[in-house]
Amino acid sequence: KAGVTQTPRYLIKTRGQQVTLSCSPISGHRSVSWYQQTPGQGLQFLFEYFSETQRNKGNFPGRFSGRQFSNSRSEMNVSTLELGDSALYLCASSLETTKWRGRMNTEAFFGQGTRLTVV
Amino acid sequence: DQQVKQNSPSLSVQEGRISILNCDYTNSMFDYFLWYKKYPAEGPTFLISISSIKDKNEDGRFTVFLNKSAKHLSLHIVPSQPGDSAVYFCAANFYDKVIFGPGTSLSVIP
Hints:
The complex is a heterodimer of chains A (119) and B (110).
Chain A: E1 5-7, E2 10-13, E3 19-24, E4 31-38, E5 42-50, E6 53-57, E7 64-68, E8 74-78, E9 87-94, E10 98-99, E11 103-104, E12 109-110, E13 114-118
Parallel strand pairs in A: 2-13
Antiparallel strand pairs in A: 1-3, 3-8, 4-5, 4-9, 5-6, 7-8, 9-12, 9-13, 10-11
Chain B: E1 4-5, E2 10-14, E3 19-25, E4 32-38, E5 45-51, E6 56-59, E7 62-67, E8 72-77, E9 86-94, E10 97-100, E11 104-109
Parallel strand pairs in B: 2-11
Antiparallel strand pairs in B: 1-3, 3-8, 4-5, 4-9, 6-7, 7-8, 9-10, 9-11
């Protein structure tokens, strides 16, 4: 069973440009979440998509956006890049099941991430 | 305001000894907690979890303890092995939200 695939693995962009990152979740997983990892900040939640709809959103500016397609693949876009956007961007997929008091299974499977460097 | 805190950015432990990683949370609505391990150049991988109806969950060398009144959980690794050297993230779940802590970098010294 293939894992979560993120492309590209590495990316270098200049300030002011825009970038699109891609994430293919595990087959059958409908929930895709995006995280930004920077030293000292840990994993900062960006947003989550479920069945093509954004279900949750973190505290990031509107320059960060995403979408999910009918096959559950997701893309994340960052416009007008800033130096501070340099980070590892991780995508996680999860299989949503109703279990244990009707709550969702929250175990997430992460991709290897896309290392974005803004110069 | 960080809802999930891991106040130790790093920890060094001798091989064979116990590693204790701590995590504190502020939101009493969290009712499910997870630990993830992350090696460099890899995505985090799920390690162990605990629901709020329990105070302990064990899986091999890994045990997670939950103290709800203190809003504190800890991950114990016994015995620690060099391969355990990684960044450990604590995560707390409430309904459909998962909040991660900043991580603790564990180094196990041979």
